TrEMBL record:
Protein name (Swiss-Prot/TrEMBL): Nucleoside diphosphate kinase
Catalytic activity entry: a 2'-deoxyribonucleoside 5'-diphosphate + ATP = a 2'-deoxyribonucleoside 5'-triphosphate + ADP
EC number of the protein: 2.7.4.6
SUPFAM superfamilies: Nucleoside diphosphate kinase, NDK (SSF54919)
PROSITE patterns xref list: NDPK, NDPK_LIKE
UniProt KW Amino-acid biosynthesis keyword: no
Recorded superkingdom: Eukaryota
Signal peptide per UniProt: 1-17
Cofactor annotation: Mg(2+)
Keyword vocabulary terms for this entry: ATP-binding, Kinase, Nucleotide-binding, Signal, Transferase
Alphabetized Gene3D superfamilies for the sequence: Nucleoside diphosphate kinase-like domain (3.30.70.141)
Enzyme class: transferase
Keyword ATP-binding among UniProt keywords: yes
Amino acid sequence: LHLFIFFHLPQPTPTAAMSIQERTYIMVKPDGVQRGLVGNIISRFEQRGFKLIALKLVHATPEHLEKHYADLKGKPFFPGLIKYMASGPVAAMVWEGLDAVKTGRSMLGATNPLASAPGTIRGDFALAVGRNICHGSDSVESAEKEIALWFPEGVVQYNQDQAKWIFE
Ligand code: ADP
């Protein structure tokens, strides 16, 4: 019986598009968690066709957040940013899919919500740059660093059968 199943399961044909899979670190910030937007934000990434490969709620320490935002150390808003990010739990996620970093950023909207187009997460839910609901990696390189920082335990590997309906 096992042999029968093995030989008769339709295997998705690997294509160029499916092989350019990227990972991005997406985080719902404390204001997004408090305002009950975690589900909405997860839905947007699911519906777009991305695959969720890691997810947890974390109440991060200032030290951890200073590592995450190391590039911004020295900015006048840095202390306030760390305080805001440590003020409650965040929803940490890793999403995988075609062009995940760039597409994730476009789904988030501009850093300043006033400049974010309606239809983006910040353009739909936020007004102030200091309370802009969500984070998304800005390059493949920072995605790798952020995933390692927030998920030292690694991500989850599983087959999701929808890829053949999303990619040619
Ligand atoms: P992004 O989060 O879009 O990658 P940055 O890396 O430039 O943007 O900034 C990180 C975060 O710092 C922003 O998402 C926002 O929460 C906060 N931030 C950026 N600029 C300001 C500002 N002028 N005042 C207050 N907070 C800011």
